[in-house]
Structure formats: C-alpha cells, structure tokens
Amino acid sequence: MSPLIVQGPIPPTAANATWPNVLHTRVADVIAQMKPAPWSKRIIADERQLVTLIASPPGGGNRPHWHSDFDEWWVVLGGVLEWELTGGTVVRASKDDIVWVPRGTVHHIKNVGADLSLRLAVAMPPAMHYFHACEQCGFDDDGPRQWTA
Ligand SMILES: [Zn+2]
To answer: Domain holding 44: CATH number?
Structure first.
C-alpha cells in the first residue's frame, strides 16, 4: 500500500501484480480465477476506500446490515438485483446501474434474476457492519459469512 502522503508526480510503482490494487483489472480475469458463486474479491483497498467485486447466484444475496459512518454505493455489472431498504423502498437495478444507500439504512441485496449477478461495491474502511434483519422480508442470517457489501 502507498504511504499516506507522497511527493508526486511519480510512476504507479505501488500497483500490485494481484488484487487488491492492480493497475488494470479486467472483470473477466477475476471471474476466471474464482470458484462458482457466491464469492467476493477485494479489488481496491486503501485508507479511504474498499472496493469489492461480488458475485451472487440467482436467489443469493447479502446478509442485511447497515453502516454508521459511511454511505455505500454499487455499480451493477451483470444480472438483476434488488435492494430492500429500511422504510419500504425497493431499488431494482441491472447492468450499468448505480445504486447509492446512505449510512443508517439497512440494505438487503438480492439477485432476483435468472443469471449470475455481479456488483462492484464501494465502501470505506473499516466498513463496520451492523447486521440487522430485513424489515421487508424478515431475512436474518446469523451464520458465518465472508465479508460482502
Ligand atoms: Zn453494506
């Protein structure tokens, strides 16, 4: 990882050969290295941002939660996803859509399509998760789970 402050301009010597913080990431290359979904892969990580590529199979999704100190946003790269949010809002998004959720709002993200879904999640470290049942569908998974945004 780069030092917090650098004296530029400098070439991109802080880039890694493998994730996170690769100079040029082809999503297809990440997918090719992963096992069948569900999976998540940290693509970018520094003191200000955590960017994660997340794949969910049809019917899959995250463990509903909220964050206290940062807003989170996603770019949908494939499939059809729904965000069930505190207060009754549902956002349905598909490829090339961007979804933003403010701090404090529970987000339960589900792949509601027939195909694999891919989303790029942008969060801030340390990305503390407060797990909370989804008020819309009641989903409340207390089991161990790999970090997903
Ligand atoms: Zn989140």
So the answer is: 2.60.120.10
